[in-house]
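ok trying this again, last paste got cut off
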Amino acid sequence: MKKSLGIFLLITIFCWNCQKNNEYSDEFRDISKSFSYSDFENTKTFILENGDRQTYCNLYLDNPHYSFEGFETYLNPEIGQKNMLCDPEVSDFNEIVIRDLFRDPQYYHILIVRRGDLKNKDISFNFLKGMKEGKVFLLKYYEEDDLDLMESNLDDYLELINNEINSH
């Protein structure tokens, strides 16, 4: 009986530690399988080459923007407000924001973590425990965001983005 109780206690502690070590896993999802590193870069390039400029939030001015059918996309600079004018000559862009005013949630933040980013002090994003370089992540931006729902909805946007890019 004591042995069974001891094993149960060890398993409980192990599971609790596993859960504690993954405490940030509810803050993001690795979407690299459905939206790869190269998909992110191709989308970023497409927005820069075919889009216009539009401010969508008070952190940045004149974000690179492209209006897809039914939703908007914006690029955020990797060095944050050090490039508040979103000038491609000043820095690269590591975040694509999808905004759909007719869906809840309205905002989808997609972050790429390039090789070297985790140690780069110039990059303004506070990377979360568990993020890996060479991956693309869907972020839980607002507390009330449901990542399962967001990830499910994201497939529709990614398909439309891919179709638009391939038609050009």
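PB: full thing came through this time. Residues 28-167 form one domain.
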